[in-house]
Specification:
The complex is a heterodimer of chains A (about 425) and B (about 425). Chain A is of the alpha+beta class and about 425 residues long. Helices cover about 40% and strands about 15% of the residues of chain A. Chain A folds into two domains: about 200 residues, Metalloenzyme, LuxS/M16 peptidase-like (Cytochrome Bc1 Complex, Chain A, domain 1); about 190 residues, Metalloenzyme, LuxS/M16 peptidase-like (Cytochrome Bc1 Complex, Chain A, domain 1, 2-Layer Sandwich), CATH 3.30.830.10. Chain A is globular, with a radius of gyration of 23 Å. Chain A starts with 9 loop residues before the first strand and ends in a 15-residue tail after the last strand. Chain B contains 15 helices and eleven strands. The longest helix of chain B has 19 residues. The termini of chain B are far apart. The chains are: A alpha+beta (about 425), B alpha+beta (about 425).
Amino acid sequence: MPATMPPEPIEHRRLDCGVELAVMAMPERPVVAMMIRLLAGYAFEQPEHLGVAHVLEESLSKGTARRNGRELNDAFDAIGATHSSYAGRETVGFLCTCLPEFTAQALALHAEMIRTPSFPEDACRTGVELTRQALAALEDDPGELVRKLLHRHAYGPPLDRHLFGEKQTLDGIDRSSVVAHHERLFAADRMHVAVAGAVDPSRIAEQIDRAFEGFAPPPDAARQTPGAQAGTDGRWPLQFLSGLWHYDKQLEQQHIAICFPCSAVTDEDFPVEQVLVAVLSGGMSSRLFTEVREKLGLVYWVGAWADHPRAGGMLHLGASTTPQRADQTYATLLREVDRVSEDLTADELDRAITGLVTAIQTRGDVARARATRMADDMFYHGRPIATAEKIARIRAVTTEDIARYLQRHRRDRLGVVTLGPRRLDTEGVDPERGQ
Amino acid sequence: MLETSFVQHRLANGLDVVIEQMAQVPSVACGFLVKTGSRDEPAAQAGAAHFLEHMCFKGTDRRSWQQIGIELDAVGAQYNAYTSKDRTFYYGWVRPENVEKQIDMLADMMRPTLPADQFDLEKNVVLEEIAMAGDDLTSVAYDALYEHLCPNHPMAWPVLGYANTIEAMTRRDMADFIAHHYVPRAMTLIVAGRIDPDRILDTAQRWCGSWPKSDAAVQRTPPAISGGHAVRTFARFHQQAVLLAFPATPAGRPDEEAAEAVAAILGGANSRFYWNIVQKGLSRRAGVFYEGYADFGVLVMFALCEGDNADRALAAMRTEAEMFAAHGPQPHELQRVKNLRRTGLAAESEAPYYRLGQLADDLAYRGRPRTPAERLANVDAVTADRIADYLGRFPITGAGLLVGVGPREDLIDKAS
């Protein structure tokens, strides 16, 4: 990769229909990838219908005004388009990869599905039932369960919710609640579309503009979600509640989940945080892998990562270990965060930066990753950010920046959840003091 | 489909080097395929191949474990390794200017010194991995499947081994395993991406050329595939895993794509299982997968469901298999498999790491790489008649092997 990267051919604009679009033409690529996101995730659910975003996402592909569910899915298959969808905290998203010659058809099928879903009664009932089963199945997924419990305790509403809702709220979801969520939140002016690959930017812009022209909620659909208000810019504020919570469960391992507030993606310190997370958990020479796993043999899995709602951020540490090693694992996790601000070396910093940059240039280079990254940028920043700019900001991070960051985001108050056969030795665990 | 071309070379000691030039991509992936896995272990050393994979990161004559991690990270490699029942694979994905350094490091790791202190410490890590797998229903169910499918055969035990075999393992045991299995003729260096083949061959010769030649050959015997009905009861799991397995064609045979098509049509995306089992609310995850090895294969139907739904999910799986066997695929179902593969192959040609995985499959089971065009032609050659012929030889009806794992003490099966 040359030292000075050529400018990327990214076109970004809000179309007349209201959709915010970013396109990167990569004519030499053999595919086109398209990411469509709507601000309609589970943070926007009505409190009495928690879980409806997931039910909606399950039901959306089960029929449109023109086709039943099988016909719709067969139409995607007929052009060989691989497509998937998800319901997330703040967005519902659709990711599609297809051969370039089928781009217009793939877009048209997504528009049909997003604009005119029929939400058949039986599909909605099945969606509720499958969501109820998924919620119950969390009992068999301790890694996901402990994260759900940490969010519930340490994040303020509505970001404390889980994708699968609550048993009692699922009981109250039917087709009408799914339709209401769709009518209230699915609209062109709540959409980000990112396209990367062998595509003509002008042509795809025209096609998208036409496909979503007039896509707006019915006049009587209320946009506001009672109970929890997004800011004026549509961003939910992230609150933090510290504390230590233990859930007893018969497991081979004890799961430990820790969090404390960190910067937002839009904060100027975000690249510092990216490097910090890489220092802690980037590769085999990272702090947590080296100290917790390789030197002490306490765990197989250990990690650090940042979780970013649109506004705010939370730094997470996690590990699973056999119960007798849990106290030492917990203490070591926190000690390593502290130690970064004391003795981070220039070589460590360089490795973390190199790892982040290379990831962008290798797995981050494929069309699907490019589309996802542009959609992320529009979600957080309101514009796609050139890869060269991202890399330059990462490369500019210094050891002093990391120390300053940890001063600014002290881990003196923690949210901690443990799940497994025994409690941590609370003698040495005070989340208010972070000891 | 982007154009690719191969360069193949065998070093004097028997190590194969396979290079795929992908001039259009801005990166390179490389890896060492070692044609050994848990099926090559003595029973008392179950888990040795996987434990050794960990130990390859723990020290060599030229590097300590810290240096290995530091140097891999210093070039920004996206790297890892995995062990399966019949192979171990070490790989990294880097920028083109770092590929020679990456090959140097991976080659060095293929000659681990098994430092005593690291050996003992890493046992704890592997034991934690075994404990973690013990909390994972899908992992427990997968291991139970092979235990009953291949009784009294090395395929029966988990890739991770057992806590007692890991605890009892010695450095001598592992050194013997290396001597028998990490020999040049059982290994292949695979490189894909934007590369100069001559430089890759020079690098391979430099770092691997001195490895001693060995004529030791791995002796493998195919397992006798077992049927029957086995239920493992775990009250602590909420869900019930139901698995139904049938013998299938070995990997690399001409009818492998027919087996893949059966799996995709019955249990892939937009499949019969999806519409008739998942969308009936019987199971939140149900599907079919095919696993092929050099000397046998298995087609596995599965469902993860609530305990109360297990019998109905099982009955629905059997019904779908019977319907498919009786009437074959619909034309649009067969076309779907081909269309999706075409897109998948195009997407793969953007990313050297994805190509690396496919090349490893080809080299392990076919002994040669296939271009994307050849792979696509193999898929396109699958017809309804070929599937019928395949199912005549590898039926998916009848009792098969039924394995249940979860809270249920038994399953009601119409086939029994």
